[in-house]
Amino acid sequence: MTERELDAAGITDPALREAYRHCRRLNARHGRTYFLATRLLPMERRPAVHALYGFARWADDIVDALGTGADTARRDAELAALERELVKGLRDGESAEPVVRALADTARRHRIDHAHFADFMTAMRSDLVVTDYADYAALRRYMHGSAAVIGLQMLPVLGTVTDRETAAPHAAALGIAFQLTNFLRDVGEDLDRGRVYLPADLLAAHGVDRERLRWSRDTGRRDPRITSALRGFERLTRGVYRQAAPGLAMLEPVSRPCIRTAFVLYGGILDAVAEDGYAVLHRRSVVPRRRRAVVAADGLARVAAARLRARQDAARRPDGVPLPGTGPVEPRMVEEVA
Question: Which of 154, 198, 199, 197 is nearest to 175 (CA)?
């Protein structure tokens, strides 16, 4: 399907096509939920999403670098080199680094504000030295660069039926909601990396600190105070989803099924954590395959309905030309998305 996506997007240069393929592989390997939701977008919009998420994953991998033996100085140097390449790529439109080349092309095609990428890199550098957050306000400042800007980068690709400024706060909130969900699911893994993303004041309100989390992780034992703190973080996260929800209707109709599916699937991770008794310090909670399939089927039905409406609207236009991304749903999408 990659070739058809690239053809639909009008990406013809062989080296650039390979750069986009590279980003697509990164997205498929690291972000299964959002990769599958992306399959619900019109084909010509998918390469741009893969470029944005592929670059984010590449930078994040440098920061984490688990099992590589890379110390903080080495990772800082690699991030600095990536940022120099990013600045050059955004300026010149060319790069020897595939993820930067695809990203620069996407930024040019969709006129994405370069400041979003600078803010993202600032957050990545912060992860090298900041290991915890005193309160939610401090965490939000970090997440502006690590998550909110991802939502803002996506807006020009997805398209809106309102002016972009109206939709932007909801897109930013959705990026934050997704990251908060990951923080809750990955508490144990992040602790092993030396990081605690749950705000210290929230933990303290429930009688928990980093040492208590470490004890639970190391011993495999549960503590009702930790469960209470995790439940409080879940409530906070659901509140951010409520802030993001009005933005779904502000997207172009052909983009809504993708984002709605990601919205529901990520929300399902919160459900899975709760159903698993908030055991995130000891195992990763996952959304059952059957539930994912139901959400995917609903997304496909919404795609079909959106494309039918678009074709009907096109038929009423004087030129009768259908809009991009309004063709029939691909037969294999059900299996691939589910």
Answer: 154
